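Title: Comparing notes on inverse folding

I've been comparing how different people in this forum approach sequence design from structure. To keep things fair, I'm posting one structure and asking everyone to reply with a full sequence. Here's the target:
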């Protein structure tokens, strides 16, 4: 067992966990952040995706001790002062969910994508999201939501479309 200090959603939190405890279980069972979902436990589905220093990360495969000193963001940390992030709003607008089990992982993966590519092409969206599985098959609406989130973010930042953007 180890005493860990984790920076989760901007707050330093102390937890006691096994040396090899996956971040997923620490988030869910020790910190009560159950928005991060357990799907396969093997890095295959993306349901457990969180951001670690802005990078989409499989929390089921990431030992919690390896994230000490990093900034961890879960679905609970995207909302700021009661305002949803552009990606969260776009997923709601596009109705990009059915059962919703994959949704938090999808939203975190999309958030990481838009940090890297402010206005991705549909091909870039599909490539970035292909490790996230939706058993309900809402992929077309997920792609539409990410396209919409990119537009919302660009508009809020007063930026123009990047030249490589291709409408799908
Ligand atoms: S639960 Fe982590 S990738 Fe499936
Ligand atoms: S909405 Fe059900 S798994 Fe994606």
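Reply #1:
Here's my take.
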């Amino acid at each position: 067992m180890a005493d860990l200090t984790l920076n989760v959603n901007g707050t330093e939190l102390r937890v006691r966990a096994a040396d090899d405890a996956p971040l997923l279980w620490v988030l869910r069972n020790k910190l009560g952040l159950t928005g991060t979902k357990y799907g396969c436990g093997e890095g295959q589905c993306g349901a457990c995706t969180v951001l670690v220093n802005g990078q989409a990360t499989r929390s089921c495969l990431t030992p919690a001790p390896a994230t000490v000193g990093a900034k961890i963001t879960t679905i609970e940390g995207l909302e700021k002062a009661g305002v949803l992030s552009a990606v969260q709003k776009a997923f709601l607008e596009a109705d990009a969910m059915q059962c919703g089990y994959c949704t938090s992982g999808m939203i975190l993966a999309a958030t990481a994508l838009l940090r890297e590519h402010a206005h991705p092409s549909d091909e870039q969206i599909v490539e970035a999201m292909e490790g996230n599985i939706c058993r309900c098959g809402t992929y077309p609406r997920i792609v539409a939501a990410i396209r919409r989130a990119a537009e919302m973010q660009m508009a809020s930042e007063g930026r123009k479309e990047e030249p490589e953007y291709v409408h799908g």
